[in-house]
Amino acid sequence: MLVLKFLLCALTSALAMKQHAPSGTMVDFTDAKVQGHLDALVRMAQSCVIKVRATPKDVRAYFTNSSPVSRSGQCFAACMLEQSDVVNHGKINRELLVHLASLVNGKNSRVVRKLNSVSRLCLDSIDGMSDRCQLASTYNDCLNENMIEFAFPLDIAEEAVRKMPFHLIQPNLPQEMRPANY
């Protein structure tokens, strides 16, 4: 979920999260620290949109934990994971992913415990892959499929998509698809 130089990306989509639960094991999206990480995730995604020329569908798929619908969607996932150093030179740094998730969720949280085992399992899904976009996207998809209960709430995913600078790479993008703040 999701995910990264800012940590949440460590969950980044690659891991993502859900509203705060009474047990304290889920992410509280009203927490200022979490909001800061979300803001950093959005900035990282904005950079990746430009680098890989991702479309709104690509970014929406990433933030809603859906499989990419295009090559640029796969490369968007790769960019996000590479910027967080979770993927480096075609290698997954599973320990960093778990560490980053623990910064937001706590070392002994349910999210981190599950991510620790799922991230290991997902390494098998990329065995033998050499294409960086396919490798990162497949790994991310595996995390998402196995961590579905921690998906970003849809309103947060849609807000992130609205903040993307699609107009910089697609000047003819219809007005309703352009971010409001650009």
Summary, kept brief:
By secondary structure, this protein is mainly α. The protein has helices spanning 8-11, 32-52, 56-63, 71-83, 94-105, 110-123, 132-146, 154-162, 166-169, and strands spanning 87-88, 91-92.
How does this structure look, described?
- With 182 residues, the chain is an all-alpha fold.
- The chain has one domain (8-177): Recoverin, domain 1 (Orthogonal Bundle), CATH 1.10.238.20.
- The chain is built from 9 helices and 2 strands.
- Strands 1-2 form a two-stranded antiparallel sheet.
- A hairpin with a 2-residue loop joins strand 1 (87-88) and strand 2.
- It is globular, with a radius of gyration of 15 Å.
- The chain starts with 7 loop residues before the first helix and ends in a 13-residue tail after the last helix.
- Beta strand %: under 5%
Instruction: Report the order of strands and helices.
Output: HHHHEEHHHHH
Q: Over all CA atoms, what is the radius of gyration?
A: 15 Å
* Tally of distinct domains: 1
CATH class descriptor: Mainly Alpha
What is the terminal-to-terminal distance? 27 Å
Instruction: Please identify, by name, the CATH architecture.
Output: Orthogonal Bundle
- Strand line-up across the major sheet: 1-2
CATH superfamily: Pheromone/general odorant binding protein domain
Low-confidence parts lasting 5 or more residues at pLDDT below 50?
Answer: 1-25, 177-182
